[in-house]
């Protein structure tokens, strides 16, 4: 199932969630942050997405966005990419999405580590999403990847993910002589 290059994007949430459809409205243009869990799930697995919170939907305020996302994201989950919903070339929009997600991730973690990011662009007339994977060090050298929309995401999470982590506390007694003071 892996793509020829070994990069496969797996999507666990419905396409409507990614596009931001609600019962009362159609899609709203802008950037959606793609959420994944590199600790619990295989890389490039999209668990959910949420809308840009601060600033212009196409040009977010990255410092304020990072502050709020730090609070919203559960431990172990992280920004793994972005979806750009708007008009224009799909490749250009995917590059914008990767650049935005790299800037946000840099604001979140203050690191220069190279990692794969997902850039996605929505084709609004047909309601399809095109995913590309890029190394953050070279966002221009993007490659198309295989996309798998999971039919049974709950089963996938139980089989592949580790959502509960148990830590056993050891109680070790400390012995020291009563007649000696430290």
From TrEMBL:
Keywords, sorted A to Z: Hydrolase, Protease
One of the GO BP terms on file: proteolysis
MF-aspect GO terms: peptidase activity
Statement: the UniProt record of this protein carries the keyword Hydrolase: yes
Superkingdom to which the source organism belongs: Eukaryota
Protein name from the UniProt record: Probable Ufm1-specific protease
Species of the source: Elaeis guineensis var. tenera (Oil palm)
């Amino acid at each position: 199932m892996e793509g020829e290059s070994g990069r496969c994007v797996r999507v666990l949430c419905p396409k409507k969630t990614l596009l931001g459809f609600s019962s009362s409205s159609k899609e709203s243009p802008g950037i959606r942050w793609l959420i994944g869990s590199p600790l619990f799930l295989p890389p490039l697995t999209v668990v959910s997405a949420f809308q840009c919170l601060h600033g212009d939907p196409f040009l977010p305020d990255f410092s304020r966005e990072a502050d709020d996302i730090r609070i919203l994201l559960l431990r172990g989950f992280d920004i793994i990419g972005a979806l750009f919903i708007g008009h224009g070339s799909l490749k250009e929009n995917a590059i914008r999405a990767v650049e935005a997600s790299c800037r946000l991730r840099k604001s979140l973690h203050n690191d220069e580590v190279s990692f794969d990011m997902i850039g996605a662009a929505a084709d609004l007339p047909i309601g399809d999403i095109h995913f590309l994977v890029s190394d953050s060090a070279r966002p221009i050298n993007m490659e198309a990847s295989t996309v798998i929309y999971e039919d049974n995401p709950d089963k996938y999470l139980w089989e592949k993910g580790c959502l509960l982590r148990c830590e056993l506390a050891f109680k070790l007694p400390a012995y020291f002589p009563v007649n000696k003071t430290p």
